[in-house]
C-alpha cells in the first residue's frame, strides 16, 4: 500500500510517499521558518499563502522522488487538525481535490497521531502499547498508546506547551525564532544548576504539566538583572531553563511507564529533537529497564512521512473520509 501524505498544519509545507506504513519512499519538506523568523513567530495568514504557493510543486516532487505517480498511489492522506485553520485548509482542499480527481480513498489524519507514528518509521520492532511523551510547539501530552489508533491522554500541560516555553524564553534572552535549537546550543556552554528555576507540579494531577510559571520566572530573573545593571550569563539561563523543562517531563514519563506497566517509552514532536532531553531520557530509561525510542531529528519536527505512517494504520482498519472532510483546528486526540 503506497500512501501520498500531505501536511500543512503549521509552517511546513510537506508531502511524502510511504509504503506499508513504515517505508518512506520520499519525504519533501518546505520549511517557511526563515520567513516567519522575521516576525518572531508564525504568522497564520502568511503560512496559508505560502502553503498555497508551494503545495503543488512539493507534491509533484514527493511523487517523483518516490519514482511513482498518482495512478500508482493507493490512498491520499492529509492532516486535518489540530493546527492553524487556514493552513490546514490548504492541505485538506488539495487532498480532497486529488482524491476526487483520481477516485482514490481519502484518509484524514490527526497531526499528533502523526508525531507519535514517526517513531514507527525507524524502529521496526516498536508496536503499541507504549507510553509516548508528545512535546511539540503546541502540545505537551503524556499518552498511553493502546493501539495504532487508540490513545489515552493521561497528562497534559495546563498552560504553555514545552516548545512554546522554549520559543518564549529564547525571545526573552534575545535569541531568535524558533527558540528550541538556539537554547539547546547555548545551554551546552552553560551551567544547568546555576539558577534554581521552579519545577511546577499540579495537585491531584500527577501527570499534568505547567510551564508558564517557569517562563515568567526566567523573565523576572532577566528583568531584575537588567534593573540592577548586572550582566547575566545567558548560557546559564538557557541551561538552567532547559533543565527545569526536562526534569518534570522525565519524572512524569518514567512514573507513567511504571504505573501503566509499559516497557517502552517514546518521545514525539519537535522538542524531542533536543539532545539534552534525549540523553536524559535514554539514561533514565536504561536505569529503569525501559526501552527508549525517539524519532530522528527530521522525523521529530513537522513532516508528511509521519502522516503517511499514521494514515496507513488507519487505512488498514478501514478509515475512509469523504468530500466533506474539513479542517478541525482544535481536533482532540481521543475524539476520533
Ligand atoms: P504541534 O505539533 O503541537 O501542532 P508544531 O507542529 O508547531 O506544533 P513541531 O514542529 O512539532 O511543533 O515542533 C516545533 C517546536 O519544537 C518549536 O517550539 C521548537 O522551538 C521546538 N524545537 C525544535 N527543535 C528543538 C530543540 N532542539 N530543542 C528544543 N525545542 C526544539
Ligand atoms: Mg513548524
Ligand atoms: Fe507538529
From TrEMBL:
Organism whose genome encodes this protein: Parasporobacterium paucivorans DSM 15970
GO cellular component: cytoplasm
The gene coding this protein: tsaD
Upper taxonomic lineage: Bacteria, Bacillati, Bacillota, Clostridia, Lachnospirales
Binding site for substrate: 134-138, 167, 180, 184, 274
PANTHER family: TRNA N6-ADENOSINE THREONYLCARBAMOYLTRANSFERASE (PTHR11735), TRNA N6-ADENOSINE THREONYLCARBAMOYLTRANSFERASE, MITOCHONDRIAL (PTHR11735:SF6)
NCBIfam families xref list: gcp_kae1, T6A_TsaD_YgjD
Gene3D superfamilies to which the protein is assigned, alphabetical: 3.30.420.40
Function: Required for the formation of a threonylcarbamoyl group on adenosine at position 37 (t(6)A37) in tRNAs that read codons beginning with adenine. Is involved in the transfer of the threonylcarbamoyl moiety of threonylcarbamoyl-AMP (TC-AMP) to the N6 group of A37, together with TsaE and TsaB. TsaD likely plays a direct catalytic role in this reaction.
Reactions accelerated catalytically: L-threonylcarbamoyladenylate + adenosine(37) in tRNA = N(6)-L-threonylcarbamoyladenosine(37) in tRNA + AMP + H(+)
Note describing how the cofactor binds: Binds 1 Fe(2+) ion per subunit.
Name of the featured protein: tRNA N6-adenosine threonylcarbamoyltransferase
GO biological process, one term: tRNA threonylcarbamoyladenosine modification
Keywords: Acyltransferase, Cytoplasm, Iron, Metal-binding, Transferase, tRNA processing
Amino acid at each position: 500500500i503506497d500512501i501520498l501524505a500531505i501536511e500543512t498544519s503549521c509552517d511546513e509545507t510537506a508531502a511524502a510517499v510511504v509504503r506499508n506504513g513504515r517505508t518512506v519512499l520520499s519525504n519533501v519538506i518546505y520549511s517557511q521558518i526563515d520567513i516567519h523568523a522575521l516576525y518572531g513567530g508564525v504568522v497564520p495568514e502568511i503560512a496559508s499563502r505560502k502553503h498555497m504557493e508551494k503545495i503543488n510543486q512539493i507534491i509533484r516532487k514527493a511523487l517523483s522522488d518516490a519514482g511513482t505517480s498518482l495512478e500508482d498511489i493507493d490512498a491520499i492522506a492529509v492532516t486535518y487538525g489540530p493546527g492553524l485553520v487556514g493552513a490546514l485548509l490548504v492541505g485538506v482542499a488539495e487532498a480532497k481535490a486529488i482524491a476526487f480527481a483520481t477516485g482514490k480513498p481519502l484518509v484524514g489524519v490527526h497531526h499528533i497521531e502523526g508525531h507519535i507514528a514517526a517513531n514507527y518509521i525507524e524502529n521496526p520492532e516498536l508496536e503499541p502499547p507504549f507510553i509516548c511523551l508528545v512535546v511539540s510547539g503546541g502540545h505537551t501530552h503524556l499518552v498511553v498508546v493502546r493501539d495504532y489508533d487508540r490513545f489515552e491522554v493521561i497528562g497534559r500541560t495546563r498552560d504553555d506547551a514545552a516548545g512554546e516555553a522554549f520559543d518564549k524564553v529564547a525571545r526573552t534572552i534575545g535569541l531568535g525564532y524558533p527558540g528550541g535549537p538556539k537554547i539547546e546550543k547555548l545551554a551546552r556552554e552553560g551551567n544547568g544548576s546555576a539558577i534554581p528555576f521552579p519545577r511546577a507540579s499540579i495537585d491531584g494531577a500527577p501527570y499534568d504539566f505547567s510551564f508558564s510559571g517557569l517562563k515568567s520566572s526566567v523573565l523576572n530573573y532577566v528583568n531584575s538583572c537588567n534593573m540592577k545593571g548586572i550582566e547575566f550569563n545567558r548560557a546559564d539561563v538557557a541551561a538552567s531553563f532547559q533543565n527545569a523543562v526536562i526534569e518534570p517531563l522525565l519524572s512524569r514519563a518514567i512514573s507513567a511507564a511504571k504505573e501503566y506497566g509499559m516497557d517502552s517509552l517514546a518521545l514525539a514532536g519537535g522538542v524531542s529533537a533536543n539532545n539534552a532531553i534525549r540523553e536524559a531520557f535514554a539514561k533514565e530509561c536504561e536505569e529503569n529497564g525501559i526501552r527508549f525510542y525517539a524519532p530522528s531529528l527530521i522525523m521529530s519536527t513537522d513532516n508528511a512521512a509521519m502522516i503517511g505512517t499514521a494514515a496507513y494504520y488507519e487505512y488498514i482498519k478501514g478509515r475512509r473520509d469523504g468530500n466533506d472532510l474539513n479542517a478541525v483546528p482544535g481536533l482532540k486526540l481521543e475524539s476520533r
